[in-house]
Amino acid sequence: KRKREAGKASNELDTSRPTAIFKPTEARAYTVSVAVPGSVITNAQSPELKTQLAGRIARALGVFCVDEVIVFDDSQTKRSNAQSNGRNGDTFTGNTDPNHFLLHILSYLETPPYLRTSLFPMHPDFQYAGVLPSLDLPHHLRRDDWCQYREGITVETPPSENGDIAVAVEHGKKRKKRESVAGASETKTFVNVGLANLVSVPSAIPAQTRVTLRFPEGVTSDYKHQIMGAEAVAPSEPREKTGYYWGYNVRPASSLSTVLTESPFEGGYDVTFGTSERGIPLSTLQDSSSTLEPVPEFRHMLIIFGGVAGLEPAVQADEELQKMGVTEPSMLFDYWVNLCPGQGSRTIRTEEAVWLGLMGLRNIILSKGTKNG
Predict the structure, then answer these.
(1) Which residues pair with 199 in a beta bridge?
(2) What is the reported pTM?
(3) At what angle do helices 47-63 and 350-360 cross, to 10 degrees?
Protein backbone atom coordinates (compact mmCIF):
# COMPACT_ATOMS: atom_id res chain seq x y z
CA LYS A 1 0.00 0.00 0.00
CA ARG A 2 2.82 2.38 0.84
CA LYS A 3 4.51 1.62 -2.48
CA ARG A 4 1.31 2.39 -4.39
CA GLU A 5 0.90 5.70 -2.53
CA ALA A 6 4.54 6.62 -3.21
CA GLY A 7 4.14 5.83 -6.90
CA LYS A 8 0.98 7.89 -7.10
CA ALA A 9 2.66 10.85 -5.41
CA SER A 10 5.60 10.73 -7.83
CA ASN A 11 3.26 11.08 -10.80
CA GLU A 12 1.48 14.13 -9.43
CA LEU A 13 2.43 17.58 -10.73
CA ASP A 14 4.60 19.49 -8.27
CA THR A 15 3.23 23.04 -8.14
CA SER A 16 5.29 24.15 -5.15
CA ARG A 17 7.83 25.82 -7.44
CA PRO A 18 7.24 27.85 -10.64
CA THR A 19 7.67 25.90 -13.87
CA ALA A 20 7.39 28.78 -16.37
CA ILE A 21 11.15 29.40 -16.36
CA PHE A 22 12.33 31.37 -19.37
CA LYS A 23 14.13 29.14 -21.86
CA PRO A 24 15.61 30.77 -24.99
CA THR A 25 14.75 29.06 -28.25
CA GLU A 26 16.49 31.21 -30.86
CA ALA A 27 18.48 34.42 -31.22
CA ARG A 28 16.39 37.58 -31.23
CA ALA A 29 17.40 40.73 -33.10
CA TYR A 30 14.23 42.76 -32.53
CA THR A 31 13.49 44.95 -29.53
CA VAL A 32 10.30 46.25 -27.93
CA SER A 33 10.29 49.68 -26.28
CA VAL A 34 7.58 51.21 -24.09
CA ALA A 35 7.22 54.89 -23.21
CA VAL A 36 5.13 56.15 -20.28
CA PRO A 37 4.82 59.62 -18.75
CA GLY A 38 6.18 60.07 -15.24
CA SER A 39 3.05 62.05 -14.40
CA VAL A 40 1.15 58.78 -13.85
CA ILE A 41 2.80 58.67 -10.42
CA THR A 42 0.84 61.75 -9.35
CA ASN A 43 -2.36 59.72 -9.73
CA ALA A 44 -1.44 57.78 -6.57
CA GLN A 45 -2.06 59.52 -3.27
CA SER A 46 0.59 58.19 -0.89
CA PRO A 47 4.26 57.16 -1.14
CA GLU A 48 3.27 53.52 -0.66
CA LEU A 49 0.68 53.65 -3.46
CA LYS A 50 3.11 55.46 -5.76
CA THR A 51 5.65 52.70 -5.17
CA GLN A 52 3.08 49.99 -5.86
CA LEU A 53 2.00 51.70 -9.09
CA ALA A 54 5.59 51.75 -10.36
CA GLY A 55 5.88 48.09 -9.41
CA ARG A 56 2.83 47.14 -11.48
CA ILE A 57 4.33 48.82 -14.54
CA ALA A 58 7.63 47.01 -13.98
CA ARG A 59 5.82 43.68 -13.75
CA ALA A 60 4.21 44.24 -17.15
CA LEU A 61 7.57 45.13 -18.69
CA GLY A 62 9.12 41.95 -17.34
CA VAL A 63 6.28 39.58 -18.17
CA PHE A 64 6.16 40.70 -21.82
CA CYS A 65 9.95 40.90 -22.31
CA VAL A 66 10.19 44.64 -22.94
CA ASP A 67 13.76 45.70 -23.78
CA GLU A 68 13.56 49.45 -23.16
CA VAL A 69 11.33 51.71 -21.10
CA ILE A 70 11.30 55.47 -21.60
CA VAL A 71 9.90 57.77 -18.91
CA PHE A 72 8.98 61.08 -20.53
CA ASP A 73 7.85 64.44 -19.22
CA ASP A 74 4.43 65.22 -20.65
CA SER A 75 4.08 68.66 -19.02
CA GLN A 76 7.48 70.26 -19.69
CA THR A 77 7.64 71.62 -16.14
CA LYS A 78 10.93 73.14 -15.08
CA ARG A 79 12.92 71.35 -12.42
CA SER A 80 12.73 73.04 -9.04
CA ASN A 81 15.32 73.16 -6.26
CA ALA A 82 13.24 70.63 -4.35
CA GLN A 83 13.49 68.25 -7.31
CA SER A 84 17.26 68.62 -7.49
CA ASN A 85 17.65 68.03 -3.76
CA GLY A 86 15.50 64.91 -3.96
CA ARG A 87 17.67 63.47 -6.68
CA ASN A 88 20.69 63.93 -4.43
CA GLY A 89 19.12 61.63 -1.85
CA ASP A 90 17.63 64.17 0.56
CA THR A 91 13.90 63.75 0.01
CA PHE A 92 11.24 61.50 -1.44
CA THR A 93 10.85 62.43 -5.15
CA GLY A 94 7.44 60.87 -5.76
CA ASN A 95 5.77 64.19 -4.93
CA THR A 96 8.31 66.67 -6.34
CA ASP A 97 9.72 64.86 -9.36
CA PRO A 98 7.53 61.95 -10.47
CA ASN A 99 9.61 61.36 -13.61
CA HIS A 100 12.72 60.68 -11.55
CA PHE A 101 10.80 58.59 -9.03
CA LEU A 102 9.43 56.26 -11.71
CA LEU A 103 12.88 55.97 -13.33
CA HIS A 104 14.39 55.22 -9.93
CA ILE A 105 11.97 52.43 -9.04
CA LEU A 106 12.03 50.85 -12.50
CA SER A 107 15.84 50.80 -12.49
CA TYR A 108 15.91 49.32 -9.00
CA LEU A 109 13.53 46.49 -9.88
CA GLU A 110 15.36 45.57 -13.09
CA THR A 111 18.67 45.18 -11.23
CA PRO A 112 19.46 41.67 -9.94
CA PRO A 113 18.80 41.57 -6.17
CA TYR A 114 22.40 40.70 -5.31
CA LEU A 115 23.59 43.96 -6.93
CA ARG A 116 21.02 46.38 -5.51
CA THR A 117 22.80 47.30 -2.29
CA SER A 118 25.94 48.15 -4.29
CA LEU A 119 24.25 50.15 -7.03
CA PHE A 120 21.45 51.87 -5.07
CA PRO A 121 22.42 53.72 -1.87
CA MET A 122 19.79 54.30 0.80
CA HIS A 123 17.21 56.78 -0.47
CA PRO A 124 13.73 57.91 0.67
CA ASP A 125 12.34 56.68 -2.67
CA PHE A 126 12.92 53.13 -1.43
CA GLN A 127 11.15 53.51 1.91
CA TYR A 128 8.41 51.16 0.69
CA ALA A 129 10.63 48.84 -1.36
CA GLY A 130 9.26 45.98 0.71
CA VAL A 131 5.88 46.23 -1.05
CA LEU A 132 7.43 46.01 -4.53
CA PRO A 133 6.74 42.81 -6.46
CA SER A 134 9.56 40.50 -7.46
CA LEU A 135 10.26 40.55 -11.22
CA ASP A 136 12.28 37.31 -11.12
CA LEU A 137 13.76 37.98 -14.57
CA PRO A 138 16.09 35.49 -16.31
CA HIS A 139 19.17 37.49 -15.24
CA HIS A 140 18.03 37.59 -11.59
CA LEU A 141 20.00 34.43 -10.90
CA ARG A 142 20.35 32.81 -7.50
CA ARG A 143 23.73 31.67 -6.25
CA ASP A 144 22.95 28.05 -7.14
CA ASP A 145 21.57 28.88 -10.60
CA TRP A 146 23.77 28.57 -13.64
CA CYS A 147 23.74 30.49 -16.92
CA GLN A 148 26.44 31.26 -19.47
CA TYR A 149 25.78 34.96 -18.83
CA ARG A 150 25.60 36.87 -15.56
CA GLU A 151 25.25 40.48 -14.45
CA GLY A 152 27.88 41.78 -12.08
CA ILE A 153 29.52 44.83 -10.55
CA THR A 154 33.24 45.52 -10.63
CA VAL A 155 34.97 45.73 -7.26
CA GLU A 156 38.28 46.87 -5.86
CA THR A 157 41.01 44.20 -6.02
CA PRO A 158 40.35 42.00 -2.96
CA PRO A 159 43.26 41.24 -0.57
CA SER A 160 43.84 37.68 0.63
CA GLU A 161 44.32 36.68 4.25
CA ASN A 162 48.09 37.19 4.12
CA GLY A 163 47.80 40.65 2.59
CA ASP A 164 48.59 39.61 -0.96
CA ILE A 165 46.18 40.08 -3.82
CA ALA A 166 43.87 37.18 -4.54
CA VAL A 167 43.82 36.68 -8.30
CA ALA A 168 41.31 34.55 -10.14
CA VAL A 169 42.29 32.16 -12.91
CA GLU A 170 43.09 33.30 -16.41
CA HIS A 171 40.22 33.71 -18.86
CA GLY A 172 39.21 30.35 -20.29
CA LYS A 173 41.24 28.29 -17.78
CA LYS A 174 40.17 26.54 -14.58
CA ARG A 175 42.17 25.67 -11.45
CA LYS A 176 41.11 24.09 -8.19
CA LYS A 177 42.88 26.41 -5.76
CA ARG A 178 43.11 30.15 -5.37
CA GLU A 179 46.49 31.68 -6.16
CA SER A 180 47.89 34.85 -4.67
CA VAL A 181 50.57 37.22 -5.92
CA ALA A 182 52.13 40.40 -4.61
CA GLY A 183 50.09 42.59 -6.92
CA ALA A 184 47.28 42.33 -9.46
CA SER A 185 47.70 43.02 -13.15
CA GLU A 186 46.38 46.32 -14.43
CA THR A 187 44.60 44.43 -17.21
CA LYS A 188 42.41 42.44 -14.82
CA THR A 189 39.23 43.39 -13.05
CA PHE A 190 37.34 41.49 -10.37
CA VAL A 191 33.56 41.25 -10.63
CA ASN A 192 30.89 40.23 -8.13
CA VAL A 193 28.32 38.20 -10.06
CA GLY A 194 26.44 36.71 -7.12
CA LEU A 195 28.46 33.47 -6.98
CA ALA A 196 30.50 32.16 -4.05
CA ASN A 197 33.68 33.68 -5.52
CA LEU A 198 34.57 36.75 -7.53
CA VAL A 199 35.17 36.44 -11.26
CA SER A 200 38.12 37.92 -13.14
CA VAL A 201 37.80 39.80 -16.42
CA PRO A 202 40.88 40.28 -18.65
CA SER A 203 40.35 44.03 -19.04
CA ALA A 204 40.57 47.16 -16.90
CA ILE A 205 37.12 48.43 -15.87
CA PRO A 206 36.48 51.12 -13.22
CA ALA A 207 35.13 49.94 -9.87
CA GLN A 208 31.37 50.09 -9.22
CA THR A 209 30.55 49.53 -12.89
CA ARG A 210 27.72 47.19 -13.83
CA VAL A 211 28.80 44.71 -16.50
CA THR A 212 27.41 41.73 -18.39
CA LEU A 213 29.75 38.72 -18.38
CA ARG A 214 29.92 35.67 -20.61
CA PHE A 215 31.60 32.54 -19.29
CA PRO A 216 33.69 30.32 -21.59
CA GLU A 217 31.96 27.52 -23.47
CA GLY A 218 33.64 24.77 -21.42
CA VAL A 219 32.48 26.18 -18.09
CA THR A 220 29.36 24.52 -16.64
CA SER A 221 27.49 24.54 -13.36
CA ASP A 222 30.13 22.19 -11.93
CA TYR A 223 32.49 25.17 -11.66
CA LYS A 224 30.17 27.75 -10.12
CA HIS A 225 31.79 27.36 -6.68
CA GLN A 226 35.30 27.84 -8.06
CA ILE A 227 37.14 30.95 -9.10
CA MET A 228 36.91 31.40 -12.85
CA GLY A 229 37.44 33.87 -15.63
CA ALA A 230 34.88 35.48 -17.91
CA GLU A 231 34.58 38.10 -20.62
CA ALA A 232 32.69 41.41 -20.48
CA VAL A 233 30.20 41.68 -23.34
CA ALA A 234 27.49 44.06 -24.52
CA PRO A 235 24.25 43.85 -22.47
CA SER A 236 22.42 43.01 -25.70
CA GLU A 237 24.50 39.90 -26.44
CA PRO A 238 22.40 37.43 -24.41
CA ARG A 239 19.37 38.44 -26.50
CA GLU A 240 21.10 38.73 -29.86
CA LYS A 241 23.16 35.53 -29.66
CA THR A 242 21.08 33.13 -27.59
CA GLY A 243 17.61 34.66 -27.29
CA TYR A 244 17.66 35.32 -23.55
CA TYR A 245 15.42 38.08 -22.24
CA TRP A 246 17.95 40.15 -20.30
CA GLY A 247 15.87 42.86 -18.67
CA TYR A 248 15.09 46.38 -19.83
CA ASN A 249 17.11 49.57 -20.21
CA VAL A 250 15.67 52.70 -18.61
CA ARG A 251 15.85 56.01 -20.49
CA PRO A 252 14.59 59.47 -19.46
CA ALA A 253 13.09 61.79 -22.07
CA SER A 254 12.45 65.50 -21.56
CA SER A 255 9.46 65.54 -23.91
CA LEU A 256 7.34 63.40 -26.20
CA SER A 257 9.38 64.35 -29.25
CA THR A 258 12.67 63.26 -27.64
CA VAL A 259 11.18 59.82 -27.04
CA LEU A 260 11.28 59.43 -30.82
CA THR A 261 14.38 61.44 -31.74
CA GLU A 262 16.78 60.17 -29.06
CA SER A 263 16.42 56.47 -29.79
CA PRO A 264 19.54 54.48 -28.85
CA PHE A 265 19.07 52.26 -31.88
CA GLU A 266 20.68 52.98 -35.23
CA GLY A 267 17.97 54.19 -37.58
CA GLY A 268 15.54 54.78 -34.72
CA TYR A 269 12.25 52.94 -34.30
CA ASP A 270 10.84 51.41 -37.49
CA VAL A 271 7.32 50.71 -36.14
CA THR A 272 5.56 53.03 -33.69
CA PHE A 273 2.24 52.73 -31.87
CA GLY A 274 0.34 55.45 -30.07
CA THR A 275 -2.50 54.44 -27.75
CA SER A 276 -5.79 56.28 -27.25
CA GLU A 277 -9.50 55.61 -26.85
CA ARG A 278 -9.84 57.71 -30.01
CA GLY A 279 -7.73 55.31 -32.10
CA ILE A 280 -8.74 52.42 -34.32
CA PRO A 281 -9.46 49.08 -32.59
CA LEU A 282 -6.23 47.18 -32.13
CA SER A 283 -7.93 43.99 -33.32
CA THR A 284 -8.30 45.40 -36.85
CA LEU A 285 -4.53 45.14 -37.34
CA GLN A 286 -4.83 41.34 -37.15
CA ASP A 287 -7.99 41.13 -39.26
CA SER A 288 -7.17 39.68 -42.68
CA SER A 289 -10.21 41.43 -44.19
CA SER A 290 -9.11 44.87 -42.95
CA THR A 291 -8.12 47.51 -45.51
CA LEU A 292 -5.40 48.84 -43.18
CA GLU A 293 -1.78 48.25 -44.08
CA PRO A 294 -0.56 45.28 -42.04
CA VAL A 295 2.25 45.68 -39.54
CA PRO A 296 5.55 45.02 -41.37
CA GLU A 297 8.50 43.04 -40.08
CA PHE A 298 10.40 45.22 -37.65
CA ARG A 299 13.62 45.48 -35.69
CA HIS A 300 12.67 48.13 -33.14
CA MET A 301 9.05 48.64 -32.06
CA LEU A 302 7.95 51.55 -29.88
CA ILE A 303 4.64 51.73 -27.98
CA ILE A 304 3.75 55.04 -26.31
CA PHE A 305 1.12 55.36 -23.59
CA GLY A 306 -0.42 58.60 -22.38
CA GLY A 307 -1.13 59.92 -18.92
CA VAL A 308 -4.40 60.69 -17.20
CA ALA A 309 -5.54 63.00 -20.03
CA GLY A 310 -3.98 60.98 -22.85
CA LEU A 311 -1.17 62.03 -25.19
CA GLU A 312 -2.79 65.30 -26.29
CA PRO A 313 -1.36 67.39 -23.40
CA ALA A 314 2.12 66.05 -24.16
CA VAL A 315 1.83 67.24 -27.77
CA GLN A 316 0.59 70.67 -26.72
CA ALA A 317 3.40 71.09 -24.19
CA ASP A 318 6.12 69.99 -26.62
CA GLU A 319 7.68 73.09 -28.19
CA GLU A 320 9.45 71.13 -30.93
CA LEU A 321 6.23 69.49 -32.06
CA GLN A 322 4.46 72.84 -32.08
CA LYS A 323 7.17 74.29 -34.32
CA MET A 324 6.68 71.37 -36.71
CA GLY A 325 2.93 71.99 -36.86
CA VAL A 326 1.97 68.76 -35.11
CA THR A 327 -1.46 69.31 -33.60
CA GLU A 328 -2.67 65.74 -33.03
CA PRO A 329 -0.79 62.81 -31.49
CA SER A 330 -1.96 60.51 -34.27
CA MET A 331 0.33 62.40 -36.68
CA LEU A 332 3.39 61.02 -34.88
CA PHE A 333 2.73 57.29 -35.15
CA ASP A 334 2.47 54.55 -37.73
CA TYR A 335 -0.54 53.16 -35.85
CA TRP A 336 -2.96 55.01 -33.57
CA VAL A 337 -4.85 52.30 -31.70
CA ASN A 338 -7.60 51.81 -29.16
CA LEU A 339 -6.60 49.00 -26.82
CA CYS A 340 -10.04 48.29 -25.38
CA PRO A 341 -13.01 49.37 -27.53
CA GLY A 342 -16.29 49.48 -25.62
CA GLN A 343 -14.59 49.81 -22.22
CA GLY A 344 -16.97 49.63 -19.30
CA SER A 345 -15.08 52.06 -17.09
CA ARG A 346 -14.90 55.71 -18.10
CA THR A 347 -11.11 55.64 -17.87
CA ILE A 348 -8.33 53.09 -18.23
CA ARG A 349 -5.34 53.83 -16.05
CA THR A 350 -1.91 53.96 -17.68
CA GLU A 351 -0.62 51.00 -15.67
CA GLU A 352 -3.66 49.03 -16.90
CA ALA A 353 -3.15 50.20 -20.48
CA VAL A 354 0.42 48.91 -20.46
CA TRP A 355 -0.83 45.40 -19.68
CA LEU A 356 -3.62 45.66 -22.25
CA GLY A 357 -1.34 46.98 -24.98
CA LEU A 358 1.45 44.46 -24.53
CA MET A 359 -1.01 41.59 -24.39
CA GLY A 360 -2.90 42.85 -27.44
CA LEU A 361 0.30 43.24 -29.47
CA ARG A 362 1.83 39.98 -28.31
CA ASN A 363 1.07 37.97 -31.45
CA ILE A 364 2.19 40.79 -33.73
CA ILE A 365 5.47 41.14 -31.86
CA LEU A 366 6.24 37.42 -31.95
CA SER A 367 5.32 37.01 -35.62
CA LYS A 368 6.74 40.24 -37.07
CA GLY A 369 9.87 40.78 -35.00
CA THR A 370 13.16 40.10 -36.81
CA LYS A 371 14.73 36.99 -35.31
CA ASN A 372 18.21 37.15 -36.83
CA GLY A 373 20.36 40.25 -37.24
Answers:
(1) 191, 228
(2) 0.85
(3) 10
